[in-house]
Design brief:
It is a single chain. This protein is an alpha/beta fold and about 150 residues long. It has one domain: D-tyrosyl-tRNA(Tyr) deacylase (D-tyrosyl-trna(Tyr) Deacylase, Chain: A), CATH 3.50.80. It has 2 helices and 8 strands, in the order βββαβββαββ. Strands 1, 2, 3, 6, 7 and 8 form a 6-stranded mixed beta sheet that branches. Helix 1 runs parallel beside helix 2. The longest helix has 15 residues. It is globular, with a radius of gyration of 15 Å. The mean pLDDT is about 95.
């Protein structure tokens, strides 16, 4: 599983000109599911993400978690995080999970996030989405389950 985590002041996602998800301060998660991912990987990654201490405390140190600041979550599926650009000029996506499997894991992640935040919004899996955000910092992290040793 790969996630691009952006700490945001606000973020939203629209489909066909209609806003389908919108949050204030918290995390925008762009979530890619590989063909090797499982529910167990999704659980461990979600727990890791939601427990990250990346919000500033009263001394300006990144010591506070999403729960500590009452943060919100916007989760957007993004299979292109598994693009393979090693050959040619057109990316291949054979490492991404099948749509059925990826959607099941994506929906599971959204539900698991609800145990960490009161407000969890999401995009529409497989839709052409327009994502907007105000990045806070900017503060962006890239998390890969294989690099983190999560299997």
């Amino acid at each position: 599983m790969r996630v691009v985590l952006q700490r945001v002041l606000e973020a939203g996602v629209a489909v066909d000109g209609q806003v389908v998800g919108q949050i204030g301060r918290g995390f925008l998660l762009l979530l890619g599911v590989s063909d090797r991912d499982t529910i167990a990987v999704a659980d461990r990654m979600t727990d890791k993400i939601c427990r990250l201490r990346v919000f500033a405390d009263q001394n300006g140190k990144t010591n506070l978690s999403l729960a500590d600041v009452g943060g919100e979550l916007l989760v957007v599926s993004q299979f292109t995080l598994y693009a393979d650009c090693r050959r040619g000029n057109r990316p291949g996506f054979t490492g991404a999970g099948t749509p059925e499997m990826a959607n099941r894991i994506y929906e599971h992640v959204v539900e698991r996030c609800r145990s960490y935040a009161d407000k969890v919004e999401h995009g529409i899996f497989g839709a052409d989405m327009k994502v907007s955000l105000v990045n806070d910092g900017p503060f962006t992290l890239i998390l890969d389950s294989e690099e983190l040793g999560i299997r």
